[in-house]
Design brief:
single chain, three-stranded antiparallel sheet, 4 helices
């Protein structure tokens, strides 16, 4: 029987990636990894007006995907991360500049849940106002990869020179 979405209202725009991934998971086609790129977070100017709609889109997409997956969420890992951090202090243009540290969120039962990683606190900033990097995102990814059923992968092939 073809997959039919459990929920009627997918976030829009764009509904397609969230819905497509749910369909592939339900179809049991052997999906091991997928990616949704949600660009536009690089907000050096008027950050609140840029980030607020993106935050709403991300949370709506994650909530819709989790609701549609139902019991399959228990064996699915959804990782949310950014490729770079942001500076802690607001700049003169009501935005933030590139920083060093970042964070990751994990949703589902296939990995550690919640906000993952250490929090150094705001009392230990590095010049010129960055949070120090305390966790390597590859460790979070590796934890998720190692939870996959079947033979344990060789992490040195996935992350050469790491570990």
């Amino acid at each position: 029987m073809p997959w039919r979405p459990r929920i009627r209202c997918w976030p829009s725009p764009p509904e397609t990636p969230w819905k497509s991934i749910a369909g592939l998971i339900h179809a049991d086609v052997g999906l091991r990894a997928s990616c949704i790129n949600l660009p536009g977070w690089d907000s050096h100017i008027a950050q609140d007006s840029v980030v607020t709609p993106l935050r709403r889109e991300l949370t709506a997409g994650l909530a819709a995907l989790a609701a549609d997956l139902g019991s399959k969420l228990a064996t699915t890992s959804i990782l949310v991360f950014t490729e770079f951090g942001r500076r802690c202090a607001e700049n003169a243009s009501l935005g933030t500049d590139h920083g060093r540290a970042s964070c990751a969120f994990v949703l589902g039962g296939g990995g550690p849940a919640g906000l993952v990683g250490g929090w150094p606190g705001l009392d230990h900033l590095e010049d010129p106002g960055d949070l120090p990097v305390v966790d390597d995102l590859r460790g979070i990814f590796a934890t998720t990869v190692l939870r996959e059923p079947g033979p344990r992968p060789d992490l040195s092939r996935i992350y050469p020179g790491w570990g």
